[in-house]
Amino acid sequence: MKHFFTLLCLLTILSFSASPAYAQAVPPGKYTTTDEKAVKYFKSALDRYKASDDKGALEDLEKAEKRDSNFAEVYELRANIYQDHREFEKAIMQYHKLFEHHPRPRWETFYTCANLEIWRGLYEDSKTHYEKFLTAPYVDPDLELVAKQNLANCIFAIDAIKHPVDFKPVNMGKNINSKSHEYFPAITVDRKKFMYTRNFRTEGLDSQEDFYCSEWGDTAWQMSQPMPEINTPGNEGAPALSADGKIMFFAACAEGPDQTYGPGRKGYGSCDIFYTYLINGHWAKPQNVGAPVNTGDWETQPSFSSDGKTLYFVRGKVYKDHSIHNPDIYTSTLNANGEFQTPVRLSDKINTPGKEESVFIHPDNMTLYFSSDGHVGMGGLDIFMSKRQPDGEWGDPVNLGYPINTYGDENSLLADPNGMLAYMASDRRGGFGGLDLYSFELPLNTRPEKITYFKGKVYDAVTKKPLEASFELIDLNAQKSLYTALSEKGNGEFFLTLTSSKDYMLNVSKPGYLFYSGNFSMNASTDLSKPYLMDVPLQPIDTGKIEPLKNVFFDTDKFDLRPESKAELDKLASFLKTNKTIKIQLRGHTDDVGDKKKNQILSQNRAKAVLDYLVTAGIEKERLSSKGFGDTLPVVKNDSPEHRQQNRRTEYKIVGK
After folding, report:
1. Other C-beta atoms within 10 Å of 21: how many?
2. N or C: which end of the chain has fewer CB within 10 A?
3. What H or E segment, with its residue span, contains residue 257?
4. Residue of 212, 239, 206, 240 lying closest to 224 (CA atoms)
5. Number of helical (H) and strand (E) elements in the chain, helices listed first
6. What whole-number distance in Å separates Cα of residue 285 and Cα of residue 282?
7. Burial letters for 272-285: b for 16+ Cβ neighbours within 10 Å, e otherwise?
8. Is pTM beyond 0.90 here?
9. Which pLDDT tens digit goes with each residue over 37-88?
10. Cα–Cα distances in angstroms (integers) from residue 143 to residues 105, 125, 130, 134, 644, in the given order
């Protein structure tokens, strides 16, 4: 079983250092001592080391050192023994003694020592020894690549420690944490549900990973509870929630001789991604996401975009010895039929020849957080942030800085929807035991965009019955569709995230109903404490029904359609193409400011401009008519700028079915 927790454990130093073992004696006559008894003790120590008698080898090395404290080979062999036993501080001390007493030690020892030092955060010493190693007459190309990468890490780390970011982690408390391990958090956009993985040991059994969930109270998170509808005797980990909290993705790994993923769960091999829906307050039976997302390799750590379209996840190659190699971040997007497409590896801006893990796409759908040991950082897995650029590509990753990142491995970061806080797992002192979840303020330069959320329900304007309808959110300025989905079957509810400082258009449609349009702006001060709440009434198609076109725009005193009107009018054209027998009248209105005759002509010209657009879009001219009403049919009194704006409108009326 490949537990998710293993991602948080320390790397084995032997694989990290790529150190050649001290497997043979120095040729006779080439020792740094002339003391024959010292050489005898050293040879005995070497024989014992080869026979795995490390205790005896250390005893002989002590005797050899007492005979001659300048006997450098003693310190190298002793360093290897300490390294084998993962006593790395002791090994480093022995290498330093080796360099002190040997005029020309093997070049590889500088490399090995530097690897140990960077792994323990001894950046100045590590930098010195990498630089020394790289001056060798010949350097193995593979070791040279690692040395240069780690030298860059040392230089970065030395500077980062001199310029620390503000970091004050706060333990999330006993309602979230326990004496077991807690990690991989998830949260809904409305910040009402907090979910995470808990790893604990049961008497006589292997560690067990399950999901726990906490609800937000008036001022704090409530006592978390296990999730029996999802948890099994198998292991579940790395939950990821949709923005509204009604879809959950998670990972499970094959275990046992039958390679099951928990009772009743089938998979493709190694770790797979599963999903479940929240229906009437209960989680449905989890289903495998299936191919092409899941393969015989390692798929895990999902994160689902707030627009409901894209799944981010980590995939690594599984070797015959079950080891995971070169995990990278992939995405798969849902097509119009709700099927995940062939996953695409993120560009080399994000993925490296090293490891990328713990991917998280913030609800702003523009800010990506992930862990990597392939980008320049503090030496292990560091947490990075990247922003989506105007062309859709990801920008250069930004290291979150020291002491958020350290010489250890950091991952499992979740950025709060409010953009200010983040959550991560740590085993720092003062916790409840094992890994605990902590919150902290993100540095300003690594925060996501401000967001809020938009929610409501769609219903029949006459019967008030909830409706399942298609809705689309469009960025008016960019003329780009951001979100398409269906309101929830049964209650008509919808939920989507909004980024501040943008103008939006909402279109809602359902067969048998007039399509609805609305627009609204999110200013820079928008935040989660001020969500946009709006219910959408749909009018049944009937002769005489009038529907406003709220996203048709003209400049003052002009009748040329502005570019941002295109999305709305294309929707109207699509509506007319679907309902081929309907005839409509385009109607223009103004407020009461200015000359009435000029207002009449302006309103007529504006209605005619919409008619002409629809004709060019392929709508038969005989199904269309237009009329201007000037200021004769206000919807509210013209007694304020806001009311006058409401009266300046374009609408359509059903005049034939």
Report:
1. 11
2. C
3. none
4. 212
5. 11, 33
6. 10
7. bbbbbebeeeebee
8. no
9. 999 999 999 999 999 999 999 999 999 999 999 999 999 999 999 999 999 9
10. 17, 18, 10, 9, 73
